[in-house]
Amino acid sequence: MHAMQYEVTLPADYDMDIVRARATGKGPLLDDFPGLGLKAYLARERGVDGSPVNQYAPFYLWNTPEGMNSFLWGPGFQGLADDFGRPRVRHWACLAYEEGVAAGSPAAVAVRGRRSVPEGARLSEVTAEAVRETERLAALDGALCAVAVVDPGAWELVHFSLWEHDTPKAPGEMFRVLYLNTPERDRLPGGRQW
After folding, report:
1. How far is 188 from 180, CA to CA, in rounded Å?
2. pLDDT tens digits along 36-72
3. Distance (Å, rounded) from C-alpha 83 to C-alpha 103?
């Protein structure tokens, strides 16, 4: 499983209704996209939920690298690049994935918690703790799913979770979910990923 996210930071006075309309208008185009486990169309709005910026920041979990590559090199991502400029796409290796106790509910918000993996840290201990934290988040009231991912180039660990309510019990940056694709969510492998 592969995770990716890009962020399009927009001007402070940008009309975020444009982003909301984009997500609900273009979102259904990926409802049956091959290789896509889930895509959460995410946005932060300046001054809302503590966000300092207006931002569009979709998050993806891919079942296959072919699906991810097909999207990145195809018309979907090119359309985004044409409209907003080509953003830097972050990509992570998955450490753990868990369906949450509220897995069948609609998603309201997402939380992304990031931290550096300290130099000299025992990687087996860091990854074991990341797996436990993923399990803990998924077991909390309102959790739809939780995933732990790592960027071994920057040594950054990220916990990403989806929630059915506006008061998630996870630390990190909160995003509003504008639309959610889940064509192959049932195929995302659960538990530890190695």
Report:
1. 15
2. 999 999 999 999 988 999 999 999 999 999 999 999 9
3. 33
Domain definitions of the chain by residue range: 2-192
State the pLDDT at residue 135.
Answer: 98
3-state helix, strand, coil in the chain (%, to 5): 25, 35, 35
Look up residue 3 and give its two tokens. 């995770």
Question: Strand 89-99 relative to strand 143-151: parallel, antiparallel, unpaired?
Answer: antiparallel
**Torsion, CA 152, CA 158, CA 161, CA 167, rounded to 10:** 180
In the prediction, which pLDDT does 41 show?
A: 98
* Span 77-107, pLDDT tens digits: 999 999 999 999 999 999 999 999 999 999 9
**Cα separation of 161 and 175, whole Å?**
10
CATH value of 2-192 in 1.10.287.110, 3.30.870.10, 3.40.50.300, 3.30.70.100: 3.30.70.100
Q: Which residues, listed in sequence order, are joined to residue 39 by a DSSP beta bridge?
A: 60, 181
